[in-house]
Amino acid sequence: MKRLILLILILISILASTLHAATKEKIIAGVVFSGDLPFYREIHKELVRELFDKGYDQKIRFIVQRPNPDTLAWSNAVRKVIAYDASLIIVYGSGAARAALYESSSIPIIYAAVYEPERSGIKGKNIRGVGYRVPVSSIIRYLRKTGDIKKIGVLYSDSEPSTKTQYNDVKDVCKTLSIDVVKIPIRRPGEIGERLRLLSYDSLLLTSSALVNKYFPDYILIFRKKSVPMVAIMEGLEEYSLITLSSDPRKQGAILAKNLIQFINNRDIDSIKNTALLKNSLTFNMKLAIELGLDIPIELLTESDRVIK
After folding, report:
1. What is the CATH number of the domain that holds 77?
2. Cα gap 267→30, rounded to integer Å
3. Per-residue pLDDT tens for 221-250?
4. Is there a single domain that holds both residue 219 and residue 173?
5. What is the pLDDT of residues 277-305, one digit of tens each?
6. How far apart are CA 112 and CA 130, in angstroms?
7. Buried b (16+ CB within 10 A) or exposed e, 258-276
8. What's this model's pTM, rounded to 2 decimal places?
9. Same domain, 237 and 274
């Protein structure tokens, strides 16, 4: 009987040691969204799917935070995952990325959905990830083919460095085309409706700002009274946007998964190389063009990956 009890205790000890080792090997990764947007959700969904398909889903545990898109909320979300002893922080969008860099200079950070990271200041010894670029010259060229564009308003957020970079790119392109640019920085949701109503513009461009994209639909009735076209450089608001030229979130998620697997295997952020996605998807809302009485260029119909009729 004593021998049996001893054997059971030994087996329990071995099992406990095995479970402890397995738990120790599992990486705790904090995931911070810049806002609860469909674009970020698609990236994360693809990340999880890729990890599952490649057998890495049991090697990592995610602590997901979807804060409101503002500076304080991003910082609090990053601090929360750090408090959970996260050994890695994953961020979607430049707002959360900047907060993560500010809150920690030692914990490895992997980003996705950041436009022109280097130019936007999303760089450091402890950060790598998936950046992208949307040719704003192309989206403005397409827009001009639908009508006479003389003054374009640009909605962006001062708290999201990539969106400021996008604004500067639009300004540079429009300068060569003799198009006036109306600067519309947004710091809180209520300013969207206020600026849309008071400012003068004959077209509107939405940057990839999490703040702008999350709350813009709340003020769509104010915008529609202007009867002007809108273009966007992040998918998710195609029903309101005449033209959307966007990076593919699923492709970003797949590359992010590859980076994460590299980190799991090596436990070294330096093993990850920054990636820049240049290929984009074009959506043309022909139904909206008809409603606004705009021209429907053949070029847009033939070059679009998706046409909304």
Report:
1. 3.40.50.2300
2. 15
3. 999 999 999 999 999 999 999 999 999 999
4. yes
5. 999 999 999 999 999 999 999 999 999 99
6. 5
7. bbbbbbbeeeebeebebbe
8. 0.90
9. no
Give the largest Cα separation in the chain, rounded: 93
Q: Are residues 158 and 176 in the same domain?
A: yes
Look at residue 9 and tell me if it is in a domain: no
* Concatenated DSSP letters of 244-286: EEEE-HHHHHHHHHHHHHHHHHH--GGGPPPEEE--EEEEEEH
Nearest to 50 by CA among 264, 308, 263, 260: 260
From residue 289, alpha-carbon distances to 126, 174, 211, 231 in Å are 46, 22, 26, 12
pLDDT in tens, 108-154: 999 999 999 999 999 999 999 999 999 999 999 999 999 999 999 99
Structural domain contains residue 17: no
* 89 and 187 fall within a common domain: no
| Residue reference for tokens 């600067």 | 183
Nearest-angstrom CA–CA distance, 162 and 117: 7
What are the φ and ψ backbone dihedral angles of 252, each rounded to 5 degrees? -60, -40
Query: Same domain, yes or no, for 262 and 302?
Result: no
As for how many domains the chain has, the answer is: 2
Cα 39 to its chain centre, rounded Å, is 6
Comparing CA positions, the residue from 105, 2, 51 lying closest to residue 264 is 51
